[in-house]
Amino acid sequence: MKRMGLIFRSKANKALDRAEDPRETLDYSYQKQLELLQKVRRGVADVATSRKRLELQLTQLQQQSAKYEDQGRKALSLGREDLAREALTRKANMQSQITDLETQYQALQGEEEKLTLASQRLQAKVDAFRTKKETIKATYTAAQAQTRIAESFSGISEEMGDVGLAIQRAEDKTAQMQARAGAIDELLASGALDDASGLGRKDDIEAELERVAGGSDVELELARMKAELSGGSPSGPAAIEQGKPQDAHPQQDTPRINYNK
């Protein structure tokens, strides 16, 4: 059971780490510090209000004490010593209250000064945390953007690698097909491979006619060269082929050529 609990807590912690955004955590912490600062300021304001209330009461008691003293002086000047004694007695009782209020006033004043100093220090810490928070958030955002760009480039690199392999396979297949087509053409030309469609295939008579025509061209060229070497002009088919008219009465006999060879 302990092991299962440990596994559950570790997985839950890992899930929380993935779900946690440091920027949101920093903003939440900053908000809590502002709330604490606001409470401290309210405490300072409450202490200041209490101090002011005591100050007003103390002023009233001091004024009343001075009034009793004036009344006792008047009664004594009029020969009423009993009234003077009563006035001075009330003044003495009120002086005890004034002393107590002065003690409380000083205590509240000291507390107010402490809370004011604490509020100022807390304000400085909150301001520093705010600056640090914004710096961390900016750095985290930049790092997050860089990570996404790097991941995108990584994905592009992998995709381009796959594309490169596909291109290589296409080129290899194309070269193989070209080589196969060339080999088939050579086999068809040499006669080693029959053309199943019958197109481009020659029978024996057509082949013989082409051979005879080729031989005739050679004989004509040979006759022309002999005529040039002997100083004469070519006649017959050679003259026609060169674009010259054939003489009606040739100066010399032209060698007779057998065109059926």
Can I get a quick summary?
This protein is mainly alpha-helical. Helix content is 83%, strand content 0%.
Structural write-up:
- The protein has helices at residues 2-19, 22-77, 81-190, 204-229, 237-242.
- The two termini are 111 Å apart.
- It contains five helices and no strands.
- It folds into two domains: 16-157, Orthogonal Bundle (Helix Hairpins), CATH 1.10.287; 205-261, no CATH class.
- Residues 236-261 have low confidence and may be disordered.
- Helix 2 packs antiparallel against helix 3 (81-190).
- The protein is mostly helical and 261 residues long.
Termini separation: 111 Å
Number of strands: 0
Oligomer: single chain
Rg, Cα atoms, Å: 62 Å
Q: Helical residue percent?
A: over 70%
State the CATH class of the largest domain: Mainly Alpha
- Low-confidence parts, pLDDT < 50 over ≥5 residues? 236-261
Q: Which term fits the overall shape?
A: rod-shaped
Count of helical stretches: 5
Order of secondary-structure elements = HHHHH
